[in-house]
Amino acid sequence: MKVVIKDNFELAGKFAAEIISETIRIKPAAVLGLATGSTPLGVYRELIRLHRESGLDFSGVTTFNLDEYAGIKPDDPASYRFFMEENFFRHINLKSKNTNVPDGLAADIPAFCREYEKKLALCGGIDLQLLGLGANSHIAFNEPGSDFKSRTHLQKLDWKTIEDNSRFFGNNPGLVPGHALTMGIGTIMEAKKIILLASGRGKADAVKKSLEGPVTQGVPGSVLQQHPDATFIIDREAAEKLGKAAK
Length: 247
Ligand code: F6R
Hints:
about 15% strand, binds fructose -6-phosphate, globular, seven-stranded parallel beta sheet
């Protein structure tokens, strides 16, 4: 696994955006796996800038988001569909029909999850997956203990995740949905290339365990040590506890 340490959040985001834009330039019909949350915001800002100022063309690109809260409407401001539209999709020339975010309102969730996997496979799989990292080291919403072979499924969220994400729900953990639809670890690991972005001291423990600890289902991020082309792009604060991986 490669580790790239940047001085701050902004530079880390720019570096990740450069890798994504290079992927699209080489393969205009690239399939991108995308994340939400605070971490990728700088990446999306930079990609929007590259679209506006350098003509980065998303017209052939297809996207699959990692996750969505169960029971949430797509136009709810706390939904991940809404997040993606607001922070990325509506600012670029990506075709709406080529964007995929799990449906939080799916009536038959297992059937929806199977379809999501099928659609992903029909598109040829993910060329480049962008990931964040939970403070508890989750990737997508695969919480500690998740099976490394898991596919897209309904996941019960850990209390730590509910607390961390309550900032998007008026700081009220009681309003955060208890479950989410998420790509599985097995799904994520099939991406041809993975970049994981992490920023800030709050992620330093999870970064250290994922990069330098044993590969274990107790630390979902550690599975990336087994991926042939995974890069952690982190800022100085998130790298603070690293030993050998920072050398
Ligand atoms: C979001 C996702 C999550 C986040 C993680 C970090 O789509 O898959 O795994 O990447 O919870 O969230 P932030 O970036 O808000 O700290």
